[in-house]
């Protein structure tokens, strides 16, 4: 399933964090779920791309501090700050973003990589409390972050100065049902539609993009394997660098859209006018 004829399984020149045309120089970047997986890898990509500051959010500050230490040990010249906060804690998230803006003046880019996988199994028997907690993280957590971001964002910013919010989603949101995945996919499908509405309601204030990161071997993927769901994996450099590109001005035409990190960005850019002008890459009902 691909919108572009060409697909990728690892980073390439057009999205490389070292590509000067998508530089994050001077940008203040906030990444949730930065302790591990894609959020962790994205931290290094944005540091490589020259971000002025990296704000790492997660549940365990000691793990975030290890990420920050590794970034500095690689000689990457970016300031880091770590905050332990639950993305569902409305007051905690608001307070954290206010602290960030107080220190750095603004937030340019938010990468929302935090997410939760409920127990896998038929909806008839899945523990409802565990399922609902995943809904809270994947839906309430995303909206909590979006509201806090909008509260510290000045209206009327356009072009390169307009802040960007990117949320990781799943291809399962638009595919036929996978056994045992109903709860997770339903929660992510809801966040996908929320992203479309946030983009539509805040066109002059915030750019919002949903990204399927590819199939990456992360702790969440390990849980899928335990349930018997195995996939051919992409290299984690693919989503981590794709996020740098998606946050750049080159991807401004994707506001409100859902894209796969596997898709070729040069071919996406060639279709920019068509993508902006119609319902392509939006959540719709086939057959109407």
Automatic annotation (TrEMBL):
<keyword id="KW-0560">Oxidoreductase</keyword>
<protein>
    <submittedName>
        <fullName>Nadp(+)-dependent dehydrogenase</fullName>
    </submittedName>
</protein>
<dbReference type="Pfam" id="PF00106">
    <property type="entry name" value="adh_short"/>
</dbReference>
<comment type="similarity">
    <text>Belongs to the short-chain dehydrogenases/reductases (SDR) family.</text>
</comment>
<feature type="domain" description="Ketoreductase">
    <location>
        <begin position="27"/>
        <end position="219"/>
    </location>
</feature>
<dbReference type="GO" id="GO:0016491">
    <property type="term" value="F:oxidoreductase activity"/>
</dbReference>
<dbReference type="InterPro" id="IPR036291">
    <property type="entry name" value="NAD(P)-bd_dom_sf"/>
</dbReference>
<dbReference type="InterPro" id="IPR057326">
    <property type="entry name" value="KR_dom"/>
</dbReference>
<dbReference type="InterPro" id="IPR002347">
    <property type="entry name" value="SDR_fam"/>
</dbReference>
